[in-house]
Automatic annotation (TrEMBL):
SUPFAM superfamilies referenced in this protein's UniProt entry, alphabetically: NAD(P)-binding Rossmann-fold domains (SSF51735), TrkA C-terminal domain-like (SSF116726)
InterPro entries named among the record's database cross-references: NAD(P)-bd_dom_sf, RCK_C, RCK_C_sf, RCK_N, Trk_Ktr_HKT_K-transport
GO molecular function, one term: monoatomic cation transmembrane transporter activity
One biological process term in Gene Ontology: potassium ion transport
Identification of the protein by name: TrkA family potassium uptake protein
Amino acid sequence: MKFIVIGLGNYGASLAEKLTIQGNEVIGVDQRIEKITALKEKITHTISIDATDEIAFRKLPLKDTDVVIVAIGEDEGANIMVTALCREANVKRLISRAVNNLHEKVLYALGVTEIAHPEEESAERWSKKLCMTGLIDSFELNNRYSIVEVVVPEKYVGRTIQEIGFREKYELLILTILKNSEKNSVFGVDRIVTTVLHGIPKPDTKLQEGDILAIYGHNDHIKRFLK
C-alpha cells in the first residue's frame, strides 16, 4: 500500500518507519529539514514542504495514495488546515490526529471519521491496524499474543462459529461480537458507535454482515485468519 504521513514528530516518524518496515511505500512530509534529514534513510521517500500551503500541498501524489495520515500534533491549527485540504482533495482514506476533545470535535465537524489519539494508541498499534485486512483495532499482550477487533470476512457471513472452526482450524478464541452503528454528534455529523451484541458467543452463533469479532490468539494465527 501507499501512505503519506504529514508531520514527522515522534508519533508521525515512528508510524512512517513501522509502515515502511512492513513493506509499504511511505512518503513522509514535514517542513522541518532536520526531521527530513533524520528519516531519509528510514522511510521510502521524504518531502520537505509546508503542507498548509495549498499550492505545495496539491503537488503531493494524493490520487495515487491509499491512505493519508495527518500526524501533526504540535500545531492544532496546522493539523486542522491540512485535514481540511485533504477533505477538499477527496483523498481515498484520511486519518487525522487529535490532541484533545475540542480538537477531536472539530475534526468530526470536518467529516473525519478515523481519528488517532497517540497518547492512548501506539504507532505499533496503528501500523498493524493499517496493514492487516479487516483489522479495526489491536492490543498486544506480549510479542506473540494479541487481542484484536476484526470485521467478519465476507466468506464467513451466515456461518456459525463452530462451522468456521476458530479453535480447531485457527487456534483462536472469540471473546465477543460487536456492532457499529451511526450516531449524530453535537454538530449533526454522524459518528460511529460500537456496541456489544454478545458476551462470550456460543458455538452455534451465526455471524452476520458487519459483525466485529473480538479475537484472542497468537499473532501468526490471527494473520493467517485474515488472509
